[in-house]
Each structure stands twice: as C-alpha cells, then as structure tokens.
Design brief:
The protein is an all-alpha fold. 83% of the residues lie in helices and 0% in strands. Helix 1 runs antiparallel to helix 5.
Length: 386
C-alpha cells in the first residue's frame, strides 16, 4: 500500500504529543481527585494501578495485531477509546466510572503509543530511525512539560472536567484527520504472528531490556503521579502550586531527549546510560534530603535528565535487534515495563499510608535505581557480545 512518509511521521508525533497529555494529566490533577472523591493515598495509588493495567492489556495484544493486520484500524480505535473515556469521567462523578475510564484511557493510550513508535521504526531507514524515535520521545516529553503549567492556570478558571472535555473535542478532530491518510500494511502476511512472537520470549537480551524498563517505568510513574503529593506534604505548598512541580521532572527529561540523538553520533549508547544513572542518583540524593522547594526543583530536574534517555534508547536497541517483528518486540519490552509502572505505583501508594511520602522517596526510589543498574549491566554485556 502506498503511503506518504511525511504524513505518517506527522501523525505519529501529534499522537505522541496527545498521549503525553493523556497519560500525565491524572497525576497533575491527583490532589483534586483525592479531594473530590475523598480518597486515601492507597486508593489513589490503585487508580494509577488501574490505568497502568489498561496499558498492560493494550500493549500485550498490540504487537501481533500490528505485525499481522496493519496499523490503521487499531490506531483509530485507540483514539476513540481514550476520547470517549475522558468524556465519561468529565460528565460524571462516580468512582466506578472513574476506575473504568482510567482503565480504558490506559488501554487506548498504550495502543496510541505502541502504534506511533512502531510506525516510525518501520517507515524510517536505519540511518534516520534513531533520530525520529528520539524526536518521538522529545515530543511526548514536551507535552508533559507544558501540561502542569497549563493546568495550574486552567484550574483557577474551570474544573478539570471541563479540561477533559476540551481534550476530547481536540482528539475527535484528530481522529477525523488520521482516518483519511494511508498507513503501511502488515509485515507478516500469514495471519497473527503468535508463534513467532512467543519465540521472541527466548531472546534473553530482549527480556533484560524489558526488566530495565520495568524499573524505568516504575520510577517515571512515581515522579509523574506522586510529585505533587510529595511537594504538598513535604513543604506545605498549596495544591494549586504543587500541580506545577511535576513539570520540573519533565523539563529534565525534555532536555535529555533533546540532546540524545545528537550525542549518539559521538558517544556510545552504553556510556550514555551509565552517565544517566549517575545523574539520577545525584538528583535523588538532593531531592530526598531537600529542606526547601528550590532544592527539590533541582533534584527533580536532575532525575528527569537522567531518566530521559531510557525509553528512546532501549526502543532504538530493540528495533535494531528485531526488525521483522518490531511491533511484537516493542510490545514485549513495553509489557514488562508497564508491569513495573503498575506494581511500583501501587506499592508506593500503599507504603505512603504507613510512612511519609518523603521517606518513601528516600528509600525505595534508590532501591529501584539499583535494580535498574543490575539489569542494565546484563544488557550491556550481551550487546557487546553481538
């Protein structure tokens, strides 16, 4: 099937931008959700867990569908699922609707993310693929950076339900545009590649990448969804101001992803990730023991700067290792990553009901970073052997 490469790349980047808003907006308004629904931190953590469970279900079925059936129908379905779920949450105040809506937002969001990354990997030549995958990461982070500041201003004038409805309308317009362009056809012409996909589970390098991203996703989930609570409880910053603090983490990520593709030309990707781990450690030290908000801001920026290279770098490695079934390979590593985001978010929420969220940040995030390092050392060793 003929398709316009420029249109495909534009759609991928716009969808990732929208997805960045969708998957971070709940964390940005979490304090309002807690107040409106009278939630404990454990229950709030379970809401994030439900969203991540939707992400897991979506990404687990997406890869074989893309490789065996193509992109268009599943992509449009993902956009419709998310937009309708946002509308349902905005128009009701029922806790069950909130839970179902968060599950469906996760389901649709994983479809949008997986399709966008696989589209870019498939339509780009090897010489330009890494740059465009890095651009996707930059685009996602750009939306996440801007959202807390926009929400801080918007929530002084309107409810978050009105904001959700506005995003729904924009998404439906994007659905109309996306449905009118042509997409690449399936790469696997023998039905769904279930057997071949199961065979990829024997690839130990792929599995180690998945477990690195398990802890990467967990740490990103903590910063995206619990930073406002951390800042509010640690420094008595009002909710209206605390909603802007996750943006400092995303600013660090944005800076990291802005330079990632250019420095890959001169620095080995393994060295970049080791350097990133050191930056995260310094940011965690500063954040965990900060006694005022400015120091916490610096710590958040450093943590974002260090974690920013993770998903783009390992997506690049994965699509180079597995070209023919790239959709299935990406689904495998993202599936493992999302298990991390889900389980760690719930764990942090549960622990915060027994010890302060500050103590949780001081103890458990460094522990997760240590596990990240151990699995990455195995990935680095295996890549050097290839």
């Amino acid at each position: 099937m003929n398709y316009n490469k420029k249109y495909i790349l534009a759609v991928a980047n716009v969808s990732v931008f929208i997805n960045g808003i969708i998957l971070t907006i709940l964390g940005t308004v979490m304090n309002y959700v807690i107040d409106d629904y009278n939630l404990t931190l454990t229950t709030a953590g379970s809401i994030i867990t439900i969203l991540n469970f939707g992400l897991i279900i979506g990404i687990s079925i997406l890869g074989p569908i893309i490789d065996g059936q193509g992109f268009k129908r599943i992509f449009i379905l993902g956009l419709i699922i998310v937009s309708s779920s946002l509308a349902a949450i905005a128009l009701t105040s029922n806790l069950m609707i909130l839970r179902i809506g968060c599950f469906l937002i996760g389901l649709g969001g994983s479809i949008i993310s997986g399709v966008s990354n696989t589209l870019v990997a498939d339509v780009c030549d090897e010489s330009e693929k890494n740059w465009h995958i890095g651009l996707l990461g930059f685009t996602f982070t750009l939306s996440a950076v801007g959202l807390p500041f926009i929400m801080q201003s918007a929530l002084t004038r309107m409810s978050y339900g009105i904001v959700f409805l506005s995003i729904t309308i924009l998404m439906l317009c994007f659905v109309f545009v996306s449905a009118r362009i042509r997409y690449p056809g399936p790469k696997w012409n023998q039905g769904l590649p279930i057997k071949e996909g199961i065979g990829l589970l024997k690839n130990t390098t792929l599995l180690f990448i998945g477990f690195v991203l398990f802890f990467q996703s967990g740490m990103e989930t903590i910063f995206a969804n619990f930073t406002t609570v951390f800042i509010h409880q640690s420094f008595a910053v009002p909710n209206e101001l605390a909603t802007s603090y996750p943006a400092y983490f995303w600013i660090g990520m944005l800076a990291s992803r802005a330079v990632l593709t250019s420095i890959l030309r001169s620095i080995n990707i393994i060295s970049i990730i080791y350097l990133s781990i050191g930056i995260v450690l310094s940011g965690l030290t500063l954040l965990g023991f900060a006694h005022n908000p400015p120091l916490a801001i610096i710590g958040l920026i450093l943590c974002g700067l260090g974690l920013g290279s993770g998903f783009p770098a390992f997506t690049m490695i994965t699509t180079t290792l597995v070209r023919q079934l790239s959709g299935t390979a990406i689904s495998i590593i993202f599936f493992i990553a999302l298990i991390g985001g889900t389980s760690i978010a719930f764990f942090i929420g549960a622990m915060s009901d027994f010890i302060t969220i500050r103590t949780t940040f001081q103890i458990f995030i460094p522990l997760f970073l240590g596990m990240y390092l151990l699995f990455f050392m195995q990935v680095a060793r295996k890549i050097r052997m290839i």
